[in-house]
Amino acid sequence: MKVVDILARAGEPPISFEIIPPRRGGSVEDVMRLVEALLPFRPAFVDVTSHAAEAVYEEQPDGSLRRRIKRKRPGTLGLCAAIRFRFGVETVPHLLCTGFTREETEDALIELNYLGIRNVMALQGDPRVERRPFPDRTENVHALDLVGQVAAMNRGRYLHDLADAAPTDFCIGVAGYPERHAEAPNTPRDIGFLKRKIDAGAHYVVTQMFFRNAHYFDFVARCRAEGIHVPILPGLKILSTKAQLTSLPRTFHVEIPEELVAEAEKADDERVVDVGVEWAVAQARELLSRGAPGIHFYILQSSREITPALERLRRAGGPGGARGAAGMRGAG
Ligand code: FAD
């Protein structure tokens, strides 16, 4: 089923999750156990992130450093297929511009098409290694280019003219930034680029994490004013350690509200996660009560934080029952 159809279904608003593949050489069963722990909460779909190669410096016996280009977390496509076939849960592989040629992307899309996976997230990708020109191959630079490539395949247009090429039928998600993408000179321009991704064929938006709902509501209002009418799915992350008070703003360029920071600082280390869960539950309840089309949780590798949060949401009447529930302290 396509994500847009899931989001359009009447009734219970969908809850979805984002996980990352194991490190190279890691066990796929760890990921399967994580997904299994989420099944009681009926995930509408599971996104699996993609990771471009990065430079790794390895010390040599003579003390010198050797630079190697290595993809630490391969396996996005295989993991999506494995989860879908084992658990019957829809999966959404992330596709990146960074680190992949357009030819490799076309091949990946053909694999996904054969596997019956109908959803993809089209992203630029985090910058990892300096881009090098490919003499005989091409590369997407912005997510807009990647959306254009997938949308072209949906019209039966592959990279090189093929007679009678079968059109694909991918539902395309793209990223949006309630607090502006760090490289965008200003919000109107950032939203303008988002609009171009939608006009190029993207079907829905998933937002970067945010800890203050006002950012999301303001972003949605601005998007609607610019003529973006696709679903905008809010992405939430549960704060779980004190170290994240600095690492999340540094990595994702998001603000953590003072009230949340103060509560987390006051808590014992092992209780920070309780503060994070309470905050995220309050955010989710308010978002759903004010019409968000669902909630997308960034959980990455562990179900430790998400399980209590989902249980509390369920006690509040389940994700469906959370519609209409009053927002809690602080999140807005
Ligand atoms: P783009 O839409 O290309 O935008 C990047 C920047 O360029 C923005 O500042 C935008 O305003 C500007 N811009 C856009 N189009 C143009 C244009 N045509 N000309 C000039 N400027 C333009 N990273 C990973 O490596 N792997 C993942 O799996 C992954 N998953 C993610 C999932 C979500 C929901 C989100 C929000 C982010 C994810 N990221 C992931 C991070 C993301 O790849 C980075 O934030 C990246 O820097 C931007 O990606 P984008 O797709 O938004 O890029």
Q: Outline of this structure?
A:
By secondary structure, the chain is α/β, with parallel strands linked by helices. The chain has 12 helices and 10 strands. It has a single domain (3-241, 293-302), classed as TIM Barrel, CATH 3.20.20.
Describe what this molecule looks like in 3D.
- By secondary structure, the chain is of the alpha/beta class.
- The protein has twelve helices and ten strands.
- 39% of the residues lie in helices and 17% in strands.
- Helix 5 packs parallel to helix 6 and helix 10 packs across helix 11.
- The longest helix is centred in the last third of the chain and has 18 residues.
- The protein is globular.
- Bound molecules: flavin-adenine dinucleotide.
- Shape type: globular
What number is the mean pLDDT? Answer: 91
How many domains? The number is 1
- Provide the spatial order of strands within the biggest beta sheet: 1-2-5-6-7-8-9-10
What structural class do you assign from the helix and strand content? Answer: alpha/beta
- Give the proportion of residues in helices: 25-40%
Main sheet summary: 8 strands, parallel, barrel
**N- and C-termini, Cα separation:** 32 Å
Strand percent estimate: 15-25%
SSE order, one letter for each helix or strand: HEHEEEHEHEHEHEHEHHHEHH
Low-confidence stretches: 320-330
Q: Give the ligands present.
A: flavin-adenine dinucleotide
Q: Quick one: CATH class?
A: Alpha Beta
CATH topology label: TIM Barrel
CATH architecture designation:
Alpha-Beta Barrel
Radius of gyration: 20 Å
Number of helices: 12
Number of β-strand runs: 10
